[in-house]
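user:
I keep going back and forth on a fold encoding question. Separate attempts, laid side by side, tell us more than any discussion would. Would you put together a sequence-and-structure record for a protein of your own picking? Write it directly below this note and I will take it from there.

assistant:
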Amino acid sequence: MVHEGLVEVRRIVEKPPPDEAPSNLAVIGRYVFTPEIFGAIDSITPGRGGELQLTDAISLLLDDQTVYGRVFEKGRFDIGQKVDFLRANLELALERPDLADDVEAIIVDIARRRGLLA
């Protein structure tokens, strides 16, 4: 059930293979939890990769409370790699009226000096 951009989480799985994914939605790593998350974290055991997985704790919460996810339509930035972090900062700066002109000028200057623009 989706309501005002929210979807009720019924099941959550850590990085399933695409053919085993329970939906076409993904977790992107931003959370607002009730305090019960700490008890759930204390109750989980290492999972995928031998690590404690937050998704396992969220799965435990599903037994006792409703968990919602926010559906994003615009997109997302995955900043797990340095170059992706840099790209996210540039993209977001270009969306800001107070930074866009200066950041665009920097990008154009660098591109010209590197021979990428005439």
Q: What stands out?
A: The radius of gyration is 20 Å. Strands lie at 2-3, 6-9, 67-70. The chain has a mean pLDDT of 89. The chain is about 35% helix and 10% strand.
